């Protein structure tokens, strides 16, 4: 097994464990056992737990950027791409119900710990915010409005994820997800109307 492969496996295992049991409650031993390597081999790749955390954050950012790139390819319109973001609440519903949102739980835990990496972890929200704002802008929203709509949707989705994790109320989550989908259509409808009016004129 190559050094690079082992490092990737360590990061993948840490990513999973940080999500399921939290950063603070995950030890070197937990990660080493998950990968099936010795502690000595583990330290050969990462000297500190904070180094692993930094690698996990980079992995999560890269994974989400790749996911959004897939949405760009699959979604024919900005509205359809925005709906893909909302749909992750359904696709990942079982995991969210058990462990919470992987972005929200990590950023919240690091904030409570006053960890130095909390700012880096917030990049995870930043990539979603920027991407959503670009989609709203592509749909015809002005820059400020596009960012406001992106933040509204991001905060609303986090609320649903938090309450789904706390209550395990899947019916509530399904209703809220459908309302978010309707909200997107309603938010973009006036823009479409203006565009059609402009063409007619």
From TrEMBL:
<feature type="DNA-binding region" description="H-T-H motif">
    <location>
        <begin position="27"/>
        <end position="46"/>
    </location>
</feature>
<dbReference type="InterPro" id="IPR036271">
    <property type="entry name" value="Tet_transcr_reg_TetR-rel_C_sf"/>
</dbReference>
<dbReference type="InterPro" id="IPR001647">
    <property type="entry name" value="HTH_TetR"/>
</dbReference>
<dbReference type="Pfam" id="PF00440">
    <property type="entry name" value="TetR_N"/>
</dbReference>
<dbReference type="InterPro" id="IPR054156">
    <property type="entry name" value="YxaF_TetR_C"/>
</dbReference>
<feature type="domain" description="HTH tetR-type">
    <location>
        <begin position="4"/>
        <end position="64"/>
    </location>
</feature>
<dbReference type="GO" id="GO:0003677">
    <property type="term" value="F:DNA binding"/>
</dbReference>
<keyword id="KW-0804">Transcription</keyword>
<dbReference type="Pfam" id="PF21993">
    <property type="entry name" value="TetR_C_13_2"/>
</dbReference>
<dbReference type="InterPro" id="IPR009057">
    <property type="entry name" value="Homeodomain-like_sf"/>
</dbReference>
<keyword id="KW-0805">Transcription regulation</keyword>
<keyword id="KW-0238">DNA-binding</keyword>
<protein>
    <submittedName>
        <fullName>TetR family transcriptional regulator</fullName>
    </submittedName>
</protein>
């Amino acid at each position: 097994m190559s050094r690079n492969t082992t490092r990737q496996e360590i990061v993948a295992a840490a990513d999973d464990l940080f999500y399921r049991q939290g950063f603070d409650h995950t030890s070197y031993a937990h990660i080493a056992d998950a990968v099936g390597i010795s502690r000595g081999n583990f330290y050969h790749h990462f000297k500190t737990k904070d180094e692993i955390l930094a690698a996990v954050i980079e992995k999560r950012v890269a994974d989400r950027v790749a996911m959004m790139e897939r949405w760009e390819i699959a979604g024919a319109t900005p509205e359809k791409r925005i709906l893909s973001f909302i749909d992750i609440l359904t696709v990942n519903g079982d995991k969210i119900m058990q462990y919470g949102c992987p972005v929200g739980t990590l950023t919240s835990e690091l904030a409570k710990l006053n960890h130095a990496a909390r700012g880096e972890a917030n990049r995870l929200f930043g990539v979603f915010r920027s991407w959503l704002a670009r989609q709203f802008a592509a749909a015809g929203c002005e820059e400020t409005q596009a960012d406001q709509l992106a933040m509204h949707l991001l905060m609303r989705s986090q609320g649903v994820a938090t309450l789904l994790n706390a209550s395990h109320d899947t019916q509530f989550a399904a209703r809220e997800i459908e309302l978010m989908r309707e909200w997107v259509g309603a938010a973009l409808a006036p823009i479409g109307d203006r565009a059609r009016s402009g063409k007619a004129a």
